[in-house]
Amino acid sequence: MATLLKKYYQENKIPFSLNGRRFAVGDIHGCYKTFRSLIETKIELTQYDQLFLLGDYIHKGPRSKDTLNYILKLIKRGYKVYPLRGNHEDELLNASKKKDTKLLRWLCRKSSDLLKDGKVREKHLDFIESLPYYYELHDFYLVHGGFNFTIENPLEDKKAMLWKRMRENETDFGGIKRIIHAHQPQAFEVIQNRVLTQAKIIGLDNGVNYLKKHRFYEVSKMGNLCALNLDTFELVVQPNVENSMKNQSKQKRKIA
To answer: What was the pLDDT predicted at 212?
Structure first.
């Protein structure tokens, strides 16, 4: 599996798919049921489509392990899935490499399912190790965090691609290509407006986990997993269903 993944993700430039659709998905954060419902019920993903995942698949939500396993199953079954590295995956990988058990436990305090006997499973570490920091399409740049526009080549600053919070007026990079990012939670109305106006920079993180009172965000405007159809600019929205048992029976077609 590790060899397959390294071979699969060695290229940052992804060719255009003539036969299918293209979707980009924001931060999932362990919301396995919500993610699966988005893919199988809302998008109804086919093997002709391209699915770009913008990082942060783990932590905060209840089922980080299942989220990673689902992504791996999609890849194994021939779906064109292109995951990016998020800052949460990067932190987990670095802590594992350093064998920092205290930091690992802290990082996984809300997602203990990631650990087995105090360690991250080898297949998950191999997967995270293989993840690139950005993808370049013929009409988009896709990244988890953002780009450092103060250096000659913004594609060389890996830290910025994981951690930077993009500003709406940062449009000097990419030429005619738009930038799609995650990482920075935004109210749904903000995301929707950026999509409707086809802005140069569009964020897709609606804080899928933000369902209770939060000191920075108004939760009534949060709590969705968002996907953008890169061809039609349709915004596909899946509300958080982690506490719902009914969504399983409503799924039209099981992929994995």
So the answer is: 73
**Which 3-state string (H, E, C) describes the chain?**
CHHHHHHHCCCCECCCCCCCCEEEECCCCCCHHHHHHHHHHHHCCCCCCEEEECCCCCCCCCCHHHHHHHHHHHHHCCCEEEECCCHHHHHHHHHHHCCCHHHHHHHCCCCHHHEECCEECHHHHHHHHHCCCEEECCCEEEECCCCCCCCCCHHHCHHHHHHCCCCCCCCCCCCCCEEEECCCCCCHHHHHHHHHCCCCEEECEECCCCCCCCCCCCHHHCCEEEEEECCCCCEEEEECCCCCCCHHHHCCCCCC
In the chain, where are the structural domains located?
2-250
Separation CA 110–CA 112 (nearest Å): 6
Angle CA 75–76–78, to nearest 5: 70
CATH number of 2-250: 3.60.21.10
228 Cβ neighbours under 8 A, 6+ residues apart = 23, 24, 180, 195, 202, 204, 234, 235, 236
pLDDT tens, residue by residue, 194-212: 999 999 999 999 999 877 7
What span, in angstroms and rounded, lies between the C-alpha atoms of 135 and 82?
8
Single-letter amino acid code for the residue at 142 = L
pTM, to two decimals? 0.89
Q: Using pLDDT thresholds of 50, 70 and 90, give the confidence band for residue 244.
A: confident
**pLDDT the model gives residue 152:** 87
Nearest to 83 by CA among 51, 114, 47: 51
